[in-house]
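ok, trying the design again with the full structure, not the truncated one.
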C-alpha cells in the first residue's frame, strides 16, 4: 500500500490501465496486458499520449468517426466520456450497475430492483445527490448506459475521474460473476474473479485485476471507495490486499492476500473497502417476493436491512448482521422505518452464501464506524 506517500503514475500505452511508477524507473510493465510503457522524467506530455493511445486500444481505433457537431458521442467513442453521464462533481458520487441478461439462459430477475433500492438508500439515508449517481441497466434507452463491456469500463473511469480528498465513492454491481484461471500468479487460490458485462459471451469478462487498476489504484489521500458487489464468486472481486475472516462467534482477523508484494494492489493513499455477496468459491442468489414477480439480490437486501436496522453501525456489526439475515432467511422483522416500506414485499431467501469484507488496509472492524 502506498500510504500517504505521493506516487508517480502513468497510463499503459496499450490498454490504458493506471500504473504506479517506481522511483527512478524509466519504464514500467502493465500487470494486465504486460506491455512496457516508457516513462519520461519530465513527461506530462508523454503520459498524456500514452493515455490516449490506451483509450484507442481499449475502446476503438483512431479511425473511428469523431463526436458529432451536436456534442453527442457514439458508442465506443474513445475521445471523451458520454455527454449523458453526470457532469456534477460532488463530494459523493456513485456508479450503480444492474444487469438482467434478458432473453438469455443466464437471465436474472432482481438486478434492476437492486439498483433501484441502492439508489433510494444512497439518496435518502446518505445524501448522495441524484445528479451524482450514474446508473447502468439493460433496460435504459440511452445506448451509453447499457452495461456492455465498453460502457462499464468508461463508467468506472467516470467514477474515479478527478477525485480529491474528502470524496466518497460507491460502486454497486448486481449481475453475474465468475472465476477464471489466474494467469499472472497474484491470486492465493489460483483463480481471478470477474464480473460479466451484458456482452460477456462475445467480448469477455472484466477481471478483478482490471477493476483494481481502474477504481482502486487511482484513489489518492483522503478519498474513500465502498464497493457493494452482489454476484457469484465475488469475495475478492476488487483484488484488495486484505480479506477479513470472521467466525460466527465474532472473532476476526485480516488475511494478507497480496502474494506479490512488488505488485501494487492497494490505493495511492486512499481507502477502498468492499462488501461482496459471497466467498470466491460460493454462489449468490435472488430473493423472491410474495407476488412471485418481484425479486432482489440476497446480499443487496441484507446490506440495506443491516444499515437501516443499526444506524451508526461499525463494519464488524454490519457484516455480522448481513450474514445473520441470510442465515435466517431474511429475518423476522424486515427493514424498519420509511425505507423499509420500499422493500416490504421482499422477504425470502433460498441460498447458502456468506457476505465478505475486504479492504486496502487493515483496521479494527468493531471500532471503525461505517459511513458512506
Amino acid at each position: 500500500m502506498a500510504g500517504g506517500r505521493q506516487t508517480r503514475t502513468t497510463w499503459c500505452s496499450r490498454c490504458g490501465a493506471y500504473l504506479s511508477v517506481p522511483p527512478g524507473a524509466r519504464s514500467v510493465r502493465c500487470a494486465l496486458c504486460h506491455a512496457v510503457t516508457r516513462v519520461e522524467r519530465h513527461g506530462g506530455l508523454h503520459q498524456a499520449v500514452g493515455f490516449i493511445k490506451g483509450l484507442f486500444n481499449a475502446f476503438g481505433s483512431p479511425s473511428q468517426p469523431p463526436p458529432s457537431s451536436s456534442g453527442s458521442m457514439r458508442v465506443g467513442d474513445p475521445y471523451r466520456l458520454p455527454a449523458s453521464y453526470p457532469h456534477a462533481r460532488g463530494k459523493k458520487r456513485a456508479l450503480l450497475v444492474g444487469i438482467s441478461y434478458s432473453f438469455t439462459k443466464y437471465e436474472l430477475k432482481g438486478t434492476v430492483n437492486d439498483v433501484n433500492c441502492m439508489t433510494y438508500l444512497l439518496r435518502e439515508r446518505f445524501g448522495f445527490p441524484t445528479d451524482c449517481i450514474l446508473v447502468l441497466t439493460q433496460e435504459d434507452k440511452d445506448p451509453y448506459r447499457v452495461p456492455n463491456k465498453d460502457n462499464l469500463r468508461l463508467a468506472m473511469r467516470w467514477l474515479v475521474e478527478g477525485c480529491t480528498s474528502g470524496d466518497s465513492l460507491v460502486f454497486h454491481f448486481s449481475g453475474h460473476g465468475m472465476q477464471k484461471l489466474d494467469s499472472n500468479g497474484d491470486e492465493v487460490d489460483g483463480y481471478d474473479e470477474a464480473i460479466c458485462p451484458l456482452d460477456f459471451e462475445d467480448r469477455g469478462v472484466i477481471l478483478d485485476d482490471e477493476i483494481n487498476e481502474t477504481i482502486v489504484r487511482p484513489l489518492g489521500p483522503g478519498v474513500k471507495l465502498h464497493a457493494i458487489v452482489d454476484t457469484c464468486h465475488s469475495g475478492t472481486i476488487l483484488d484488495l490486499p486484505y480479506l477479513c475472516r470472521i467466525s460466527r462467534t465474532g472473532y476476526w482477523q485480516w488475511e494478507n492476500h497480496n502474494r506479490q508484494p512488488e505488485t501494487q494492489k492497494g490505493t495511492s493513499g486512499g481507502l477502498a473497502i468492499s462488501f461482496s455477496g459471497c466467498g470466491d468459491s460460493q454462489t449468490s442468489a435472488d430473493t423472491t417476493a410474495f407476488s412471485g414477480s418481484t425479486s432482489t439480490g440476497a446480499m443487496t437486501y441484507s446490506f440495506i436491512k443491516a444499515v437501516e436496522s443499526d444506524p451508526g453501525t461499525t463494519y464488524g456489526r454490519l457484516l455480522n448482521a448481513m450474514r445473520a439475515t441470510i442465515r435466517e432467511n431474511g429475518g423476522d422483522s424486515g427493514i424498519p422505518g420509511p425505507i423499509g416500506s420500499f422493500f416490504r414485499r421482499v422477504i425470502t431467501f433460498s441460498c447458502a452464501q456468506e457476505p465478505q469484507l475486504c479492504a486496502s488496509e487493515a483496521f479494527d472492524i468493531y471500532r471503525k464506524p461505517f459511513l458512506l
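Keeping the full-length input from now on. Residues 1-6, 42-79, 279-293, 342-351 have pLDDT under 50 and may be disordered.
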